[in-house]
Amino acid sequence: MNKKGIIFDMDGTLWDSSEGVADSWTEVIARQYTDQRIITAEEIRSVMGLTMDKLAEAMFPELAEERRMQLLEKCCENENRYLLEHGGVLYPGLEATWNQLRDEYFLYIVSNCQTGYIETFLKHYGFEHYFEDIECYGNNGLEKGENIRNLVGRNGLTFAVYVGDTQGDYDASQAAGVHFIHAEYGFGQIAQNVLSIHAFSELPDAVEKLYKYMY
Hints:
The protein starts with a strand and ends with a helix. 49% of the residues lie in helices and 15% in strands. The chain is an alpha/beta fold.
């Protein structure tokens, strides 16, 4: 059986939650650390895609590792609560594109986020029914490439493509041994010459082109 799957990154690919994340983090930091630190959306965008330990180090380099991870945990808990209530900024055309893709492909999400972040996104918008499986760094502490590989294996995919917006997403796809499409409208650039989309609605044509080229 030929089982084809499309695996999505979250931030910069499906939505931009950076404003809400920044606000929710600033609330926690004022209570737990200092009221002199205002987190900006630009700061959040600059670290999105990092695993949680590396993100904590980038955001709070002045703190000892144990303290920064404790603070990060509180920030992430508040972030999930905030986004569940308020959501973020969706990129245009998500549902129409997913409905088009579901005729031929199974859909998945893999992110370097904390536990509950993907679920918050899905629950806020009622998107749960579009996706067969999800995975994230917060669940198991594994790098994105390994999580992609594991998801492909447990779902029995014979063709898989990862859709992401950063160099780290491309690198993870290569580590996992899957194809890659660059969401060029997102947060990052890719050094390699790869298949790109300029809007989410272009994805069905891009995946079809990739599949016909490979097979």
